[in-house]
What does this fold into?
Amino acid sequence: MNEERFKIFSGTANRPLAENICRSFGMPLGRQVLGKFSDGEIYFQILENVRGADVFVVQPCSNPVDYHLMELLLMIDAFKRASAWRITAVIPYYCYARQDRKDKPRVPISAKLVADLLETAGASRALTLDLHAPQIQGYFTVPVDHLYASPVLVDYFRSKKLPNLTVVSPDAGGVERARFFAKKVDAPLAIVDKRRVDVDVSEVMHLIGDVRGRSALIVDDIIDTAGTLVKTAEALLKEGATQVYAACTHAVLSGPAVERIAKSQITEVVATDSVPLTQGGSELSKIKVLSIADLLARGIRSIHEETSISELFI
It folds into this structure.
């Protein structure tokens, strides 16, 4: 692999993940200066030649979301103006994905706006991981490679060999994800019917399926405030589940999430390092973090070498 024509750069959102991706290639991160002016504006400069290069910019848009998104946009613009041949935005966590449609009057479709911003900045394509709504791929006019963290999570839970396992979708929207996971671990599926009463508040209504006397594994893409997760776990235990595990791709863990998980009866929460855990989350023994650096590296290699990426889907 020609390092003069293949380069990986990173924003500040999750530099350790970018470094681990580079380690898979045996190459360093691209040289750059990324800082702030005294008024808070972002400053970025590339410190090496990228003319004609295949550039990958790794930046999950995690908290602070708007700052990291702006960093990504400015970096892409700099590479475009430096005559990079192709610029791929590697976005393990795609921000504003939960606002993907007009579900209420007079609200924005923010996921579409973010796609437009990335393309306007100069992104040639995007590599994402477990979008909240897969149809967001259709908001782009440039190619999008949408990977899933399920290979990493499935391998972990297969190794645990939980007795009488039932995979649980915490809502109707996540049924397809949970069904795929259940098939891979050879377990039945249960679905929780919930009603969202506010932006970050939901109420568990019914359980469809049987968890009595069984281990339950809640599978979701994002754990944000952990309110839905904890309520779902309580409902499963009330219905007779012997133990409750949870798996997610993006451990956002905002607000009271860490405290809620610590006080809950959930045995373990398994997440990936798509976003860096908060300090409290990294110290919580209930949270197990698995790396998706190798998965993303394989996706990046396929894009650069122009080979099929479908082998990454299990």
In short: The chain has a mean pLDDT of 92. The chain has two domains: 6-148+293-312, 150-290.
